[in-house]
């Protein structure tokens, strides 16, 4: 079960050298020593998971955890370049699934995401399930919440307690055009209405230290999925600090 604290996830995407990843992880580890009441997940590229885990294993705050950016739904087999959930389970606690960039560039659909969610839960990982719309519209809340419902409708209530749903309007990702906080909060509320009020729902889309509080003050937004700003330790720590004050 996920805690009641806000969940802040740093998705590094395909960024950082090994040296940069180690410095970033160490800075986050040290910076979070005095920041409580917030859960933080770092999601580096696959190749840096183990080096980052080594750093986080040294006097790491309990609220700092590790996540992967993707995984395959099969246990093993002829899937060149893929990583299975069973390979990840001893490295990470969380895994991001269904990100819009996986949909756009690798044509992953809801059925694939659904299979991945099941497999992640089977091995004890916490899935962070991404959903969103490609353009801003008055029907976004209905569209996105129905998509979230289709992906997780097969899950038991006890399983839903182990997942987070990240609302990421595709038009806001990496564009600097973040969604209005009221707009985002409405979509997140609709997701909770359809999936379950106890499910943790995050917002992601051009989040930075200047706008993060605008989202976190809303009861329907339980955390943030942060992209570019998670690569800047000082800014990401500021976001985490702001989240710790919204409890």
Description of the molecule:
The structure is a single chain. With 247 residues, this protein is an alpha/beta fold. The protein has one domain: TIM Barrel, CATH 3.20.20. It contains 10 helices and 8 strands. The protein has helices at residues 18-31, 49-56, 85-88, 100-106, 110-123, 140-152, 157-160, 181-195, 212-216, 233-244; strands spanning 7-11, 39-43, 64-68, 94-97, 126-131, 164-167, 200-204, 223-226. Strands 1-2-3-4-5-6-7-8 form an 8-stranded parallel β-barrel, surrounded by 6 helices. α1 (18-31) runs parallel beside α2, α5 crosses α6 and α6 packs parallel to α8 (181-195). The radius of gyration is 17 Å and the shape is globular. It comes from Candidatus Berkelbacteria bacterium Licking1014_85. Pathway: Carbohydrate biosynthesis; gluconeogenesis; Carbohydrate degradation; glycolysis; D-glyceraldehyde 3-phosphate from glycerone phosphate: step 1/1. Its EC number is 5.3.1.1. The active site is at 99 (electrophile), 168 (proton acceptor).
| CATH class (first level) name | Alpha Beta
Mean pLDDT: 95
Helix content: 25-40%
| Distance between the first and last residues' Cα | 18 Å
What would CATH call the homologous superfamily?
Answer: Aldolase class I
Number of distinct beta strands: 8
In CATH, the architecture is Alpha-Beta Barrel
């Amino acid at each position: 079960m996920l805690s009641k604290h806000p969940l802040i996830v740093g998705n590094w995407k395909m960024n950082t050298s090994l040296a940069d990843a180690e410095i970033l992880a160490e800075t986050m580890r040290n910076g979070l020593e005095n920041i409580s009441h917030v859960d933080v997940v770092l999601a580096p590229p696959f190749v840096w998971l183990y080096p980052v885990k080594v750093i986080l294993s040294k006097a790491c705050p309990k609220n700092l955890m590790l996540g992967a950016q993707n995984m395959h739904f099969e246990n093993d087999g002829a899937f060149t370049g893929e990583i299975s959930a069973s390979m990840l389970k001893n490295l990470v606690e969380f895994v991001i699934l269904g990100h819009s960039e996986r949909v756009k560039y690798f044509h992953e659909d809801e059925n694939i995401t659904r299979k991945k969610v099941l497999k992640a839960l089977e091995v004890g990982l916490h899935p962070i399930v991404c959903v969103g719309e490609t353009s801003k519209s008055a029907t976004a809340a209905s569209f996105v919440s129905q998509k979230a419902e289709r992906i997780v409708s097969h899950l038991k209530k006890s399983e839903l307690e182990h997942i987070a749903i990240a609302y990421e309007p595709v038009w806001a990702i990496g564009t600097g055009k973040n969604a209005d906080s009221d707009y985002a909060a409405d979509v997140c509320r609709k997701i909770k209405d359809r999936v379950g009020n106890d499910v943790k729902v995050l917002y992601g889309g051009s989040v930075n230290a200047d706008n993060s509080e605008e989202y976190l003050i809303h009861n329907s937004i339980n955390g943030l999925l942060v992209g570019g700003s998670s690569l800047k330790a000082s800014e990401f720590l500021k976001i985490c600090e702001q989240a710790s004050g919204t409890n």
